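Practice problem: predict the structure.
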Amino acid sequence: MIVCSCMIITDQDIEAALIDVLNRPDAPIPTPGIVFRHLSKRMNCCGCAPVAVETIYDKVGELERRGLIAATVSATARSKLLEFNAWRDRLRGKERAAAACDSSPEATREIA
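Answer:
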């Protein structure tokens, strides 16, 4: 499956990068930025970020089940990715609330 159409990154590319990154002694939290840099790529439009995070989260669990990464690394990565998802959801909620305020009838009257 293609995760990033701008840079042509597949879920298999992400899996290979995760195996390399998470088996380092000083393994960082596998964010999309870490994975993309490992692949010598950069996010272009960032439209793939939510799919990349979800793919990374799923792949970390899958790699743990297959014994390709340590369970402790997987648990740490999973908790950090969940924190990131919660932060992203809070941010989206604030953006939706701001957009709703901007489209309220009062705001429309003030503009006119």
